[in-house]
Amino acid sequence: MTVPKKRVRPIAAIKALRALLRDPEDTRQVFLVTEALNGNSGMRAFERFRKTETGQAILRERRVLLDRLCDQASLSKLPAGTLGRSYYEFMSREGLTADGLVEASQAENRDPMPEDVRLFAERGRDWHDLQHVLTGYGRDGLGEVCVLMFLCAQSWNPGLLLIVMAGMFKVAKEIPGYPVKRAVLEAWRHGRKAAWLTGLDWEGLLAQKLDATRPQLGVATPVIYQGILANFAKAPAANGAVEAPAMAAE
Q1: Does 171 reside within a domain?
Q2: Domains of the chain: total
Q3: CB-count exposure of residue 237 (10 Å: 0-12, 13-18, 19+)
Q4: What backbone phi and psi angles, to 5 degrees, belong to 201?
Q5: φ/ψ of residue 103, rounded to 5
Q6: What is the pTM of this model?
Q7: How far apart are CA 44 and CA 37, in angstroms?
């Protein structure tokens, strides 16, 4: 598949990043940053994906992950401790819906995509919250930054890396005294060692126990991140601690 090289637009990325930092809940800016900076990195990921056995099956079957994730009734009936049940509980607890990122991902002036590429791109959008559940990172500001760094460690993504760097310094400034940078570096190391999440059969994993799935995929426990959360929860408000912003959250 021959695809023309996409132009990188750094000025547009900076504008979107500034908007995101002003309003971390404006998820659309995340997609605008990545759209402006990623060039052909998405196509390289797609080429890798379609060469895998799982990728070929997904493309052949025209499998849409979002359909499965929107079936809350089915997910709620899965055994406790499975990825699918844990995802259902995570989304319910956070007040999220599986299709919450669809509208935000509709970037302006996006070039038309071949059908297989579009299916792949939408799949990457839709398993974001599954990644939270699998890796153990929450939707707090540091958790969002770490999730993105985990992903950056697996696939070169300059747009997400820019968001990670900006988000890391923002969170570090807002919760001084905590090892924020070490937690983000830990996420990078864990991403490098884990199985390639983009190529996973997420539908097949939903009924699998998380405690068994994580070691099978090489997903390590985020010890530094969890330590920060535990210490942060114990810190009295009088110490000046503030809640980390929800960078790149839905």
Answers
A1: yes
A2: 1
A3: exposed
A4: -85, 80
A5: -65, -40
A6: 0.83
A7: 14
If one counts every other C-beta atom within 10 angstroms of the C-beta of residue 10, the result is 11
Q: 71-101 as b/e, with b when 16 or more CB fall inside 10 Å?
A: eeeebeebeeebbbbbbbebbeebebebebb
- pLDDT tens, 162-194? 889 999 999 999 999 999 999 999 999 999 999
Any domain includes 45: yes
CA separation for the pair 104, 249 (Å, rounded): 11
Residues in a beta bridge with 209: 82
Q: Is residue 44 part of a domain?
A: yes
CB contact set of 96 (below 8 Å; sequence gap of 6+): 90, 129, 250
In a domain, 195, yes or no: yes
Domain assignment of residue 90, given as a range: 10-235
Distance in angstroms (rounded) separating the CA atoms of residues 195 and 6: 28
The two three-digit tokens of residue 97, written as one number: 């819906």
